[in-house]
Target: Transcriptional regulator, LacI family
Amino acid sequence: MKPATLKQIAEQLNISISTVSKALKDYPDVSKKTKDLVNELAKDLNYKPNAFALNLRNKESKTIGLIIPEIVHHFFSSVIKGIISQAEEKGYLVIILQSNESYELEKKQIELLMNQRVDGILISLANGTADYAHLNEVLAQDKPLVMFDKIAKLVRCSKIVIDDRKAAYLATQHLIDTGCKRIAHFRGPLLPQNSIDRFLGYKKALEDNNIPYDPSLVYLCECGEHSFEEGKANAQKLLQDHNDVDGIFINTDLVAIGAINEFKKMGIKIPEDISIVGFSNWHMSSVISPSLTTIDQPGFLMGKNAFKQLHLEITNLKNNLPIVHQEIILQTDLLKRESTKDITAKKNKLHL
Amino acid sequence: MKPATLKQIAEQLNISISTVSKALKDYPDVSKKTKDLVNELAKDLNYKPNAFALNLRNKESKTIGLIIPEIVHHFFSSVIKGIISQAEEKGYLVIILQSNESYELEKKQIELLMNQRVDGILISLANGTADYAHLNEVLAQDKPLVMFDKIAKLVRCSKIVIDDRKAAYLATQHLIDTGCKRIAHFRGPLLPQNSIDRFLGYKKALEDNNIPYDPSLVYLCECGEHSFEEGKANAQKLLQDHNDVDGIFINTDLVAIGAINEFKKMGIKIPEDISIVGFSNWHMSSVISPSLTTIDQPGFLMGKNAFKQLHLEITNLKNNLPIVHQEIILQTDLLKRESTKDITAKKNKLHL
DNA sequence: GTTAGCACCTAAAACGTTTTCGTTTTTAAA
DNA sequence: TTTAAAAACGAAAACGTTTTAGGTGCTAAC
Model:
């Protein structure tokens, strides 16, 4: 049986719509008798408040929009899970769109969400996004916007990120600590802030350890659908160009795994000949052999925080409270596994 | 600048709201002059039709709901991607909820979506779902509902599935064809139809090849968060119970990978000592060593088809056309890789 | 100079709520 | 019995659209 409306209840009881509405919301100026009658009939007729009408009246939909570059991706799907779990707790629904790493699509989708009048927007930018007008437009219309992971520093809104630079620094430092002298880097695309930051972290670690930075040791990856193949290809190129490399810090796990597979095929031993550190801690990284040393990126937590911040801004906006933009930096972990040498273990053995 | 309303445009031009509405929709009974004025001002004032008002009037939101057991999962996230891509094409938005394999949550979420008045619902059932009242309620309210992958046969709605039984049969047959004589099965949970079907396919293949079915060779897996550990544990148990097993058909890839890793650790060679076939073709299955022979499950295609069918039913309902429930069975592929012996290759060599 | 026809425009209802403000009815006090 | 206060109810506007049905005012034809 389809939900009834206030009108239908009112007609059956010969009272006004207003009274029905008030009765259901337990207003004090409705008699106990009427309330009982209304509540009973409401149950019988399967009354459910019409969300469309409520949205129109309240000018809010308890719905937010989420734009993400790629859904089939361990990190991003973890973020989605974090967002949805938190949204559910606060009674919000999430509309998800996928930008496919395309700036054009991203722009369209922002418009779509604005026209849909969602209460707020969460976004992780496409790699191609270099112009931020569409994002500023959102803010100009007083619609809460929170960015996560792939952010634009210049846009004045809240951001949830990890410290990519620091994580990359630690990853590179770990290679150095385990004895690597000549360290290559497979970097991500040129635009997004986080692949820039990872590159900078790598470079800084070298400098701080008096290892000269050599641009020819840096290889570019799209880090898109063909990451695995890119890893293999770069591994081959690297060996042709430089036969003295003993460590690689790689922008993302799947590329690293491609490289490992290629090296294994060529008879190069990991980590004895070359040590490798990846980034993101994809599920498969712990499962392959040798397992991959990598940076754990807390996707679920990032999603949770992103929604929390957005929710805060939505409620503050509603209550005319000031909105303070936050930049939240989440902790990352270096997970030491088999693809790097465990020198500390050796050291400990010597001490025994 | 926030979007203006028809009213604001009407006031500024000193004409009625109706005329503004018609002008924007290019009705024939509005003069060219007025249309031009309206369109210009509409652009200037950033007019965007209010979605809330439209929903209320049209009794539709161009939004569908999707309930899925788990988002961080290669197969399911592929399905989501398929659904979203198709929805975008037809101008629909997708609200995603995650049931966490919980029947209780699933029930609540169905109610949420019904109250939200989505135009239709897509669902893949939680493992624990054995009661279908909540689903029948959706249908009773004339709301289009399409199930995919994890379905309930008894619910009268459209379904998009693969032929789990046939796929499992082919997987098992492949083990037999490559010389396995004693084949174990790591099966999925007891309730969902697809893990039952995979078990049945396994059993049937044995029978058709005159291999006696031995229940003690069937091991249970939750196939949840700890699939990898389950695979390892089951591998150990299997070796203790039966030292003569030479092939295993495993309900899902991650369990299979756990088993492979454990076997490798114990010095058992894959596929020489034991051949293994998984299910679902997780990304990592092609990347590990030995790569895993598995059944490719077309997630993206399934998502596309699920939305297409739902969309068909939504539009038919709107146009008072009859709704015909479909059961669409998608093709699967057996991907032969390193975890099973390639006997045909050997045969071919002999023929040379 | 009436009338038909046309071009253009508007009023108003409807979608389903909520809430303010006013009106009616009841109760209690004078 | 009158009056004041309290209790219970309802009318109406508002949110922003669309569309039907009904005007206007004009031109052209008789």
Q: What stands out?
A: The CA atoms of residues 152 and 193 of chain A lie 7 Å apart. Chain A has a mean pLDDT of 95.
